[in-house]
Amino acid sequence: MKDDAFLPLRLHPGDDLRRALEAALAGQGCEAGFVAAGMGSLAQAQLRLAGAPEALRLDGPLEVLTLAGSVAVNGSHLHASLSDSQGRVLGGHLGYGCRVRTTAEVLLVLLPQWHFSREADPATGFDELVPRRRGQPPA
What pLDDT does 75 receive? Predict the structure, then answer.
């Protein structure tokens, strides 16, 4: 993989983690990417636990132990595991409103030849990833 396919980021206090990743992707002229690695701290988080209809708001300080997923300009899918000041860990879908406390360090893999969208999948009942090469018509 070419070196310019990687985008190391350092996010700052107050940044919305998910929005900042989507903005960084768009700023590179990309529509698709993946988080290769991510860690840092959050002042608050929005985490949707498995099977839950709504996100759970967590107030920090929180440590980002893991961060992974697809990033797209129109439908990211990110998972995180977070620990609180007692060392308890929760994991789930990372929503908007996760505010960086001190820092977040993320390595994005850029996929400039791809476009990611989310489309309804009757088998799962959810909007699921549909990766397409840029310029390829929808199936």
Answer: 84
Give the mean pLDDT of 57-81.
Answer: 95
**CA angle (120 as vertex; 114, 55 as ends), nearest 5:** 95
Beta strands in the chain (DSSP E): 6-11, 32-48, 56-72, 77-83, 89-94, 99-110, 114-121, 126-133
Residue count of the chain, please give it: 139
List of domains in the chain: 14-111 (3.30.1330.80)
Using CA atoms, how far apart are residues 135 and 1, in angstroms rounded to an integer? 21
The rounded distance, in Å, linking the Cα atoms of 18 and 115 is: 18
